[in-house]
Amino acid sequence: MDRIRQIIFSTLLSILLYAIGIVGYMGIEKWNFIDSVYMTAITLSTVGFGEIHPVSSNGRIFTVFLIFSGVGLVLYLAGVVMQFVVEGEIRAMLGRRKLDKSINKLKDHYIVCGLWTHWKNPV
Alpha-carbon distance 99 to 101, whole Å? Predict the structure, then answer.
């Protein structure tokens, strides 16, 4: 379950970074909401369409911070997801869930462990 928490944490951190970008552009550059959303999107996605309005020195410093934070976060999130997949936790979780459901449905049963028989044809 630790990996799931990492994925959730990373996703929430991505949303937070996006919100910081929007609020940052609105506060530093005095842009409206839509322009701030658009600039944050093209900055965090590293598309690089260019600036929609002239950016001040403080805005450029903020943009650099946003680019490095966004790229770092995306790399971290990709690493967490890849580790999750590589370790096979998805398959293990699904298999374990199915096994738990099957066990929970059983009533009045016995589990016999280590029983091995060898049948021979009588001569």
Answer: 5
